[in-house]
Amino acid sequence: MTASSPLIEALTAWFDEYERPLPWRSTTPWGVMVSEFMLQQTPVDRVLPVWHEWLDRWPTPGDLAAETSGEAIRAWGRLGYPRRARRLHESATVLVDRHNGVVPHGEAELLALPGVGGYTAAAIRAFAFGLRSVVLDTNVRRVIARTLDAQATPPGHITRGEWQRADDLWPRSDAESARWSAAVMEFGALVCTARSPLCSECPVVDGCEWTAAGQPEGASTRRQPRYEGSDREVRGRLLAVVRDADGAVTRTRLAKVWADEEQCARALAGLVADGLLVPDGRTRYRLP
């Protein structure tokens, strides 16, 4: 496929028919922002119930900022990577202090929020405000790499050239750009998947450069470190004990979570360093 317009037209038409009715597609800018934090490295089916709980409890940034960060961590539950909860709480506080409790639409203002990087800022601008913004997540990059470049996977990191190419590809108008961003992301999540692409259901398979090249394998990608037995697992178990407790938990109780004393102590120290737990006296720990 050598021109951008056929790809955009075909996938936008596909999206018109197969778009999932995800709740953050018809919510407030704050609801979009919460969804973007939660969807980082976490699948949609796990995010859905927690997102609803958060928006019911904290429908505005001010509602969340009025609580402690510990309550945000507790409500995060088992979504994983709980530092996202702390940063989302910090962002809510900044929104109240600097933006009258409203999510801004400017790129610079969004990038100044804790936990908001280039992708998240672009996604909020596109999906919360309908603005033209180049939204490049893993799914989007994979679709473009395959259909236009005959590559199974995109490079490990976004290069300036890749971003410029995407900027040239994106529609110029706000509405068309935002719709295209959602369409290509959805297509990568449901059809042009990483491991088992549904090429028989692809509306652009006849013009896909990767298919025309015989679908060559891509370069091996760095695997996610094993979770079982890792410090991440220990951290998750320790945090779960404190999260589910009514008040502070003793170090003795936490030490029983994991047989390896050294690893347990290291994980506990990491949780304290990350602000996810705080000492309560000399031998007890609680949520912040």
Please give a structural write-up:
With 288 residues, the protein is mainly alpha-helical. It has a domain at 231-286: Orthogonal Bundle (Arc Repressor Mutant, subunit A). Helix content is 56%, strand content 2%. It has 15 helices and three strands. It has helices at 4-18, 29-38, 44-57, 61-65, 69-76, 83-99, 107-111, 118-129, 138-149, 160-169, 174-190, 209-212, 231-244, 251-255, 261-273; strands spanning 249-250, 278-279, 284-286. It has a three-stranded antiparallel beta sheet. α13 crosses α15 (261-273). The protein is globular and about 65 Å long. The model has no long low-confidence stretch (mean pLDDT 92).
CATH architecture term of the domain at 231-286: Orthogonal Bundle
Provide a count of the helices. Answer: 15
Portion in strands: under 5%
Spatial strand arrangement across the major sheet: 1-3-2
Mean pLDDT: 92
CATH topology of the domain at 231-286: Arc Repressor Mutant, subunit A
Rounded to an integer in angstroms, the radius of gyration calculated over CA atoms is 21 Å
Helix content: 55-70%
